[in-house]
Design goal:
Blueprint: E1 2-3, E2 10-13, E3 16-23, E4 27-34, E5 42-44, E6 49-56, E7 58-63, E8 66-71, E9 75-78, E10 84-87, E11 94-101, E12 104-105, E13 111-114
Parallel strand pairs: 1-12
Antiparallel strand pairs: 2-3, 3-4, 4-11, 5-13, 6-9, 6-11, 7-8, 7-10
């Protein structure tokens, strides 16, 4: 098991913020806020699966070759090695809970394919 997070870890990104709110032996739970008209990179993870639960607003999702809307009180499962992205196309912040599961849970487990902020390396 490899986890490089601590409860209370926070980060400000060009698109919004994330905060680690719980950690278990095989999971990490984050609260993620995406600011209006912003988007995360199109990315995938080699070692972790993710479950997203939308708690405020609606996000526009790319999941593999599909696009869909994730609205409040709905959830989405993202298997490891699946390209994905969330975008906020509204004028209000959106908030979702991300549950990461796997044997290696590391912020560096990100492969970016496209990014509106020019971040294409794993550690940006």
């Amino acid at each position: 098991m490899h986890i490089n997070y601590k409860i209370g870890d926070k980060d400000i990104r060009p698109w919004g913020t994330w905060e680690t709110i719980d950690i278990g032996e095989t999971y990490i739970i984050k609260k993620i806020i995406v600011n209006p008209y912003q988007a995360l990179s199109l990315q995938m993870h080699t070692h972790r699966n993710e479950h997203w639960i939308m708690v405020q607003g609606s996000g526009f999702i790319t999941l593999g070759e599909n696009t869909l809307t994730l609205s409040e009180n709905n959830s989405l499962y993202i298997p490891k090695q699946t390209k994905h992205r969330i975008a906020n196309k509204t004028n209000k912040p959106i908030c979702f809970i991300e549950i990461q599961t796997g044997n290696i849970l590391d912020e560096n487990d990100i492969i970016r394919f496209s990014d509106i902020y020019g971040r294409l390396t794993k550690n940006d």
